[in-house]
Design brief:
The complex is a heterodimer. Chain A is mainly beta. Chain A has strands at residues 3-5, 10-14, 19-21, 24-26, 32-39, 46-52, 59-61, 64-69, 74-79, 88-96, 104-105, 109-114. The radius of gyration of chain A is 14 Å and the shape is globular. Helices cover 0% and strands 52% of the residues of chain B. Chain B contains no helices and eleven strands. Chain B has strands spanning 4-7, 10-13, 19-25, 32-38, 44-51, 57-58, 67-73, 76-81, 90-97, 106-107, 111-115. In chain B, the strands form two sheets. In chain B, strands 2, 4, 5, 6, 9, 10 and 11 form a seven-stranded mixed β-sheet that branches. In chain B, a hairpin with a 2-residue loop joins β7 and β8. Classes of the chains: A mainly beta, B mainly beta.
């Protein structure tokens, strides 16, 4: 079965703190894609990153970084020096390689960054 | 980057009426479009997948006669909620991908439907 678990429903931090959002996935596919999206209060999904299953290199983009570990089926997302504008719901998603593009979303983590 | 639009961005309709939501790919040909539904404080749930020129494939539990999907062209898909009821009130999001690039999915801004 294909599944994505984001165990943290809500996280609250104070500005400038670092925060890690966890994502654990399940799939039997050897080829798949993992994604992170940000959903601010406006509702529009903002694409953050896509990773394919053959690329385990960690990635850093400004204050954002991602840690992909196939051994633990995890794809965690860290925001360094969080800011109030980072407040949003963050979704991790799995795109099975042979499913024609359909995405399976985790339940989402609502991040609240307080000044 | 590729842009997907949705119209309307929000709509209020009375119970029993039908409402149509449009999803357009503005600068690319979308061979596949996806429709998601999101209830408040919940995740996105895929409703159906549509390929241009063919019938949509609905996910288990989604009523195909209630949620009519048409993907008549490479830039337009429509979702019609027929005989809407208050429980259909939700945030509907479409996404689109190009042929051969199914892992690259572009999301529309969503349509908030309220049925009174």
């Amino acid at each position: 079965a294909q599944k994505v678990t984001q165990a943290q429903t809500e996280i609250s931090v104070v500005e400038k703190e670092d925060v890690t959002l966890d994502c654990v996935y399940e799939t039997r596919d050897t080829t798949y894609y993992l994604f992170w999206y940000k959903q601010p209060p406006s509702g529009e999904l903002v694409f953050l990153i896509r990773r394919n299953s053959f690329d385990e290199q960690n990635e850093i983009s400004g204050r954002y970084s991602w840690n992909f570990q196939k051994s633990t089926s995890s794809f965690n997302f860290t925001i360094t020096a969080s800011q109030v504008v980072d407040s949003a719901v963050y979704f991790c998603a799995l795109g099975p390689g042979n499913q024609g593009g359909k995405l399976i979303f985790g339940q989402g983590t609502e991040l609240s960054v307080k000044p | 980057g590729a842009v997907v639009s949705q119209h309307p961005s929000w709509v209020i309709c009375k119970s029993g009426t039908s409402v149509k939501i449009e999803c357009r790919s503005l600068d690319f040909q979308a061979t596949t479009m996806f429709w998601y539904r999101q209830f408040p404080k919940q995740s996105l749930m895929l409703m159906a997948t549509s390929n241009e020129g063919s019938k949509a494939t609905y996910e288990q539990g989604v009523e195909k006669d209630k949620f009519l999907i048409n993907h008549a062209s490479l830039t337009l898909s429509t979702l019609t909620v027929t005989s809407a009821h208050p429980e259909d009130s939700s945030f509907y999001i479409c996404s689109a991908s190009q042929q051969g690039v199914s892992y690259e999915q572009y999301f529309g801004p969503g349509t908030r439907l309220t049925v009174t």
